[in-house]
Specification:
mainly beta; Jelly Rolls; Immunoglobulin-like; six-stranded antiparallel sheet; 0% helix
Length: 384
Amino acid sequence: MKQKLKLVVLLMVTMSTITSTAQEKVNILNTDYYGFEVTSGDDGWWMQQPENFSISTNKGANSSIHSLKYTNNTTFSGSKKAFGSTTIDDMLIDVEAGTYTLKTMVWLETESNITAVKINFRTDGENEVNTEFDLSTIAKNQWVEVVTQFTTPHNFVNTNIRVLMQSSYGTGTMYLDNLQLLVDAPEEAISLPFLSQISTIESENLTTDKGVYNVSLQVWVDENTTISNFYTQVLNPWVSLKWDISSVAKKEWVTLSQEMVLSTNAVNSEFRFLVNNQPELGGGKGAFYIDDFKIVKNEGDLSTEQPSTETEVLFTPNPASNFIEFNLPKNSKVEVYNAIGRKIKTIKIDALQHRETISNLAKGIYYLKILQINSTVIKQLIVN
């Protein structure tokens, strides 16, 4: 008789590092120095033209009381500059090549016709990078937030910032406060367990006869996913199947199948999907989905392996710490598997009473596949 078990499963394995869709931005400029709030010691700014640039103590944005003041009512050539310190660590910045957002608060006095202010990034051995805030249309006599973008083709390391006013920018009085350089917030690392798994609830556990089965499923692997494999496992009798998805076509449903042998009847046995989150054992980043999971018994199953009886004691002790002793015929073989179905050891039985040291095994659950001349049985071993 053909037996069929169908589990419809939707399984997604997510990245070990989670990044939000809309990446949060953070300001990397020190708010005291670039908010002009340092009032004792070195305020970090050197005014090349102190008659034009100064730290104002009576006007500040967002309830502060300090800002950078620029005032000029005459024509001039070249530019006027306020230099950020090259020696105060809190004023120096590091940015990688890329595009960034810069914003600040600006106040223009009523009579001002200032149309722009330039921000200059300069470090020895690299080309300067400049960007301008457009002030030509902002409201006068109030604090206004202005935003601009700038792109640097190279990295800047320990770089200072300068505020520049060109002769073409116009005349009048301007206050600048809360200069901010926004970059992507660091990705939030989420610690994942060594194993990730989902298991059947008791009412959906597996009950079927011993024999050879065809196991098939549909899998969808998202683009850029680096997860290379996952496992399906029957816990009693214990069988673990490894599914290699490293070369599966991405962004489409693909059918995979393989053979599974149950050495004894499965009676209300737990079934699970499992991913080892360690990259060297198949884990990685990305997502994959599983659907239409089926277990179908092969017709004409001619398996001759007969399991040992459940009451037969094949090894002792269990749980064990230092050794286990087998009660098996000579020339039997025992394969030791870890919890994810990876074979870690093969034991050749060379005597009727064979003692095997297990002190090198980490604490946990293992499975022993015991192969005798006319039978094969799988037993659970607990190492503590």
